[in-house]
Write a structure and sequence with these properties.
- The chain starts with a helix and ends with a helix.
- Helices cover 44% and strands 10% of the residues.
- The chain has six helices and four strands, in the order αβααβαββαα.
- 34% of the residues are buried.
Amino acid sequence: MDFYQRAGIVCRSIPRGKVASYGQIALLCGKPKNARQVGYALNRGKLGEDVPAHRVVNGRGRLTGAASFDTFDMQKNLLEGEGVEVFRTRDGWQVDMKRFGWRHTLEDAEGFRTLFREMGI
């Protein structure tokens, strides 16, 4: 299994104007305990250049990937450009996961599983 290939496919599937958590991506890749590996892969560019990394946040909706972007507010600006409202908390920038979180379906998860099997990853 190539976890990074899987994670790249899942990340590219996050709809515009929505966000997903590191854990959600790991779960859809079939490795629910690998949330940190998703963050590592995004930070190191292991998922490819065309991955919308700005759509990935932590489980509470906090924007924790600032170090991976050219400027500290780039992730915030990209999300706002897609219509995602970002607000300031004492812990940093955050989005409302109930409103802007990607609600994947069981069919989405089964589709990824089938695709991964067909690709041999």
